[in-house]
């Protein structure tokens, strides 16, 4: 029997085990920005009508500008990138897929469920010659590893020569826009996945975008069917993409929170070994015990069964939450020492 994949955000399981209401917990387990982007005013009609073609076209045009791709580049709006992760393995007959890992485990699980031979590779040099598809999360979750643009393009070209493509999951790239390969999807056989919820702090909206060549975009659009994304989600995304002045301040607040988190970890004696703008990865010999001790104080972080010395810790919303984390860490680690 296949073991369920662990994810961040499982607050209901944490409360069932350690007690307390959800409101009493500090959830730092997801890597989702704790501050959501300011929402537009939504009229009653947007909830009552099916999303029309004009709204979809406006949102996709705003997304192209935001992601820095040409006006006519193929782009598909989807109900979250997880929906795409489930769908991508069905675009080709199963052969071998190479996944740079360790990484977000749903990629491997989805390809395996569709009959693919899944090979996890530690580096590009380990990708086998039999692989027709590659998957790279960039920056990687959970360690923040970044693969250079020219290496991704070359790999996509190689996989294309084998009849396949490269999937680049840029779920955490909005805060690291300089590493994005979104502008290259029309020139090489590559699919780029974009999460809306993580950077904009709106994971509950369930919205994502796929950038690719025209043939793959058409196939995915047909598979998703009409009205794949709700009118409210499209309206909120369009508002966020076009609000450049607010975006600048929004990014700056993420950077300040990340600096604050690094300061807390350093003062607590924890070793940061990676991360992105939205989370830190720390290494500690008693990571699982530290996880339990934090949970007893109703603070949730992310542990890993495959890496028992790792914890992933997301951003705190404000100084009060950050101080709560620091006090808990120092109390726990002082007791252990």
Automatic annotation (TrEMBL):
Top-tier EC class: lyase
One MF annotation (Gene Ontology) recorded for this entry: pyridoxal phosphate binding
Lineage: superkingdom: Bacteria
Domain Aminotransferase class I/classII large: 65-327
InterPro entries: Aminotransferase_I/II_large, CobD, NHTrfase_class1_PyrdxlP-BS
Any one biological process term the GO annotation gives: cobalamin biosynthetic process
Cofactor(s) needed for function: pyridoxal 5'-phosphate
Keywords linked to the UniProt accession: Lyase, Pyridoxal phosphate
Name under which the protein is recorded: Threonine-phosphate decarboxylase CobD
